[in-house]
Design goal:
35% helix; Arc Repressor Mutant, subunit A; single chain; 22% strand; 5 helices; Alpha-Beta Plaits; 2 domains
């Protein structure tokens, strides 16, 4: 469970992931050792991951696609989501309620990237009934981890 200090520490890192521990300690009025220990604890527990992110609009040769995907059988959604998440170009997979079983965020080459992803990568996953693609025209406050 995250306490108030953990939440503030994550908030500071969200604004600037490159900030050093001493500066975080000063901002939160805690010791540098506490910051170091908290970051390690949060990372070890899977609550925090400090990484570099890319603005997707900085790459003219790539495009962000959202896919709504229906599964043939809904009993294996977690296994299918994990399998899909391992496909090249997949940023995230969400199991959802409503019209689609999954919403998949894909980062592909502009030229034929979506066609290749649908016809090769996603087609290799058994149990996909259908998909609908949505080209992201403009995004706000969106950063991605795969270059």
């Amino acid at each position: 469970m995250l306490d108030a200090v953990d939440k503030k520490l994550i908030e500071v890192l969200n604004k600037d992931g490159r900030i050093n521990n001493n500066e975080i300690a000063r901002k939160l009025s805690i010791s540098e050792g506490t910051v170091r220990n908290r970051i390690k604890k949060l990372a070890d527990s899977g609550h925090l991951k400090v990484i570099g992110l890319l603005n997707p609009e900085s790459r003219a040769d790539k495009q962000m696609i959202l896919l709504g995907v229906k599964a043939c059988v809904t009993k294996d959604l977690m296994d299918k989501a994990k399998e899909i998440s391992m496909l090249n170009g997949v940023q995230s997979v969400c199991i959802t309620t409503g019209r689609y079983d999954f919403i998949i965020e894909v980062w592909v080459d502009v030229e034929f990237g979506l066609v290749k992803f649908l016809s090769e990568s996603l087609a290799s996953v058994e149990g996909i009934a259908s998909s609908e693609s949505f080209l992201v025209i403009k995004s706000y406050n969106k950063w991605i981890s795969k270059v």
